[in-house]
Amino acid sequence: MNIEAWSPRALAALRIVSGLLFMEHGAQKLLGFPPSENPGPPLFSLFGLGGVLELFGGILIVLGLFTRPVAFILSGEMAVAYWMFHAPESAFPILNQGDAAILFCFVFLYLAAAGPGSWSVDGKLTPRRD
Fold first, then answer.
1. Is residue 107 assigned to a domain?
2. Mean pLDDT (whole number) for 57-74
3. What is the pLDDT of residue 129?
């Protein structure tokens, strides 16, 4: 069994699951779902912009549409979120609750470099080079 043959599928699974989890953060900020203690932020604020990027960027990541540029932008968003909102609280991600931001940052940076994997709209739109 050639384990490398599964690499594009594993990459796609990473992309889809990461996008779904990321969408949840945006949906909570913009739509109030799932319900939380924090009310939705004003749309024209940093948190509102973050919610738009998270919801719609997450949708594009799940679909595998414009994967590389969207993933690069989302990676940057998570780097900004970590350094602006989490790092000032503590030097330790476990204490400042920034571990998810760090993981999203590097998963999206990887997707920007590696592409969408199989099962993507990008793959259907771009002809394969053999």
1. yes
2. 98
3. 64
